[in-house]
Amino acid sequence: MRTLDRLARRAARSPVLSTLTHPYPPGRLLELVDPLWSDRDRAEVESVRHETDDVVTLVLRPAAGWPGHRAGQHTVLRVEVDGVTHARAFTIASSAHDHARVELTMKAHPDGVVVPWLRQHAAPGLVVGLDHASGDVHLPDERPDDVLLVGAGSGTTPPLSVLRTLRDEGHTGRVTFVHLARTRADALFVDELRAAADALADCRVHVLLTREDGHPGHGTRLGADLLDRLHPTWRDALAVVCGPAPLLEAAEALWHEQSDPSRLLVERFRPAPLVLGEPGGGTITFTRSGVEVDDDGRTLLEQAEAAGLTPESGCRMGICHSCDVRKTAGPTRDVRDGRVHAGPTPGEGNTTDTVQVCISVACGDVAVDL
Predict the structure, then answer these.
(1) What pTM was computed for the model?
(2) What domain range is 328 assigned to?
(3) Overall number of domains in the chain
(4) Claim to verify: residue 197 and residue 151 sit in the same structural domain
(5) Both 153 and 260 in a single domain?
(6) Does one domain contain both 292 and 233?
(7) Which residue from 149, 146, 152 is spatially nearest to 162, judged by alpha carbons?
(8) Contact 27/38 with Cβ under 8 angstroms?
(9) Within 13 Å of residue 101, how many CA atoms lie on the same side as its CB?
(10) Are residues 292 and 334 in the same domain?
(11) For residues 226 and 241, is the Cβ–Cβ distance under 8 A?
(12) Most confident of the ranges 54-63, 127-136, 323-332, 336-345
């Protein structure tokens, strides 16, 4: 099947076929045979697993041109719901050595759109958009001998991808996997985690139930005493941690105090909050709509929505770029790292700039094309 897919993609780029199929590109006609026989970033749902009442796993077959991923990276899934295409970022849970499948595990939130829709409607044969993998949080090419993996809730997916990858490689180093879940019903992949522990030479799995084991603090605090007990060499290990913001903040503080922060890889579902001080008191102008608002310190996207505008957006964390718009005046700050991006400089021939409104705040008077 993969060989057939590759041949189809070559055909989609053939100048001879382009002439024969004019005015339609060859890829458009090949899609009638198989929706993945095109140059577009697509995938087909092969199977759906309902892990818990609010967590669902999709196993996808990506198009032949999908280049794969590194363990720990994420992708952007694009789904059409009620005629509107939505983009959401999810960490890939599958092994980096599984080139034929992409597994995504996602949690439905009450105010969400995409995941609740997928839980209800996703079925084998559904075609979705699937961006190439990206992200700096991934297993290094030189595999460490000592690895600590910590995942809470659906944040188990980045460390799970690392574990699956190491399992497929027959890793012989030390690995500890700590899975934090509220209750036994919320624990994910427990059987597979224990099977991986049996398959690897030196692997231990700990499932901590934060509402049933008498230690309610485990879900939000990751203390040295806990790690000393579960993985005594954690200070020298490579650690991959993913979960709710309090867990990540505790991990970052702990590694800064007692270890080397460069040994800690943290995967966030949303940008870390950044304290920017008081709003600058400037004016934000949405030029296309003719709307002006007094800057209140929130992101440009949030203030546009509060003003009654409906700009396109997707992941709301600076990954999918669905919210990119033209900035015609003023400096903005990236809430993820605090860097300031100067406004356009008309005198130098640069009259516009591009800004991601979901992760940008104003630094004075700003004008964007919304």
Answers:
(1) 0.76
(2) 283-368
(3) 2
(4) yes
(5) yes
(6) no
(7) 149
(8) yes
(9) 14
(10) yes
(11) no
(12) 54-63
